[in-house]
Amino acid sequence: KEKHKILHQLLQNSTSPVDL
Amino acid sequence: SNGETSPTVSMAELDHLAHVVSKSHLETCQYLREELQQMNCQNFLQDEVESYQKKPREVMWQLCALKITEAIQYVVEFAKRINGFMDLCQNDQIVLLKAGSLEVVFIRMCRVFDSHNNTIYFDRKFAGPDVFKALGCDDLITSVFDFAKNMSSLHLTEEELALFSAFVLLSADRSWLQDKLQVEKLQQKTQLALQHVLQKNQREDGVLNKLRCKVSALRSLCSQHTEKLSAFRAIYPDIVRTHFPPLYKELFGA
Fold this sequence. Notes:
The complex is a heterodimer of chains A (20) and B (254). Helices cover 40% and strands 0% of the residues of chain A. Chain A has one helix and no strands. Chain B has 254 residues and is mainly alpha-helical. Chain B has a three-stranded antiparallel beta sheet, covered by helices on one side. The longest helix of chain B is centred in the last third of the chain and has 30 residues, at 206-235.
């Protein structure tokens, strides 16, 4: 999990940090 | 119906899947074609091209890594909205994104590719291959432009592009998948929806085969990118470690 911390976060967030 | 071991799916289901995937694609495609047309984007002028060419290699790499990472964030959002993707275990979601997100970025590039003058939308204007000279990987850049040119010559609709992107993202033959069968089911359904849409749009029979051939071209582009990154990292390890986006490093093992 540590290895893919950001991907985990992006997958778990209901919205991604990008401004869609 | 073709005798293969494909799941039984009704036409209505395929239409629904195509609609949802297409909607997700348009919601997460970073740039709408109409927006780019309205923005009346210009090509880079010669002095602007030269200023990109004069950038230090590591600065241009950093800029491209940033642009790729931004594009990938939209692809992650697309994946999350594909039917069934979030039902996969998190290991498999990550495996599919690690292997397929850059491939989808390459597919999406054909939407912002101008075949009349072999340019691609980059950093707010249209850029030819010469803009990327400072990267020091002309062969990769030529391959990327050739791929965009070939893809755009197929003149796929947004719905067809969306389904092809989902099909590539849901590749069941990626290493380290825990539930290959589940991914395979999703990919088969996506392929049926793509086939259904191609037939509905009265595309000639060869298009699906041409798209299948693109799968190996995409894998080759991604392995070229990995090779170039390794070569770059061998010379500039600190630049990669301290200046490259964390998501890029996570995805490409930098």
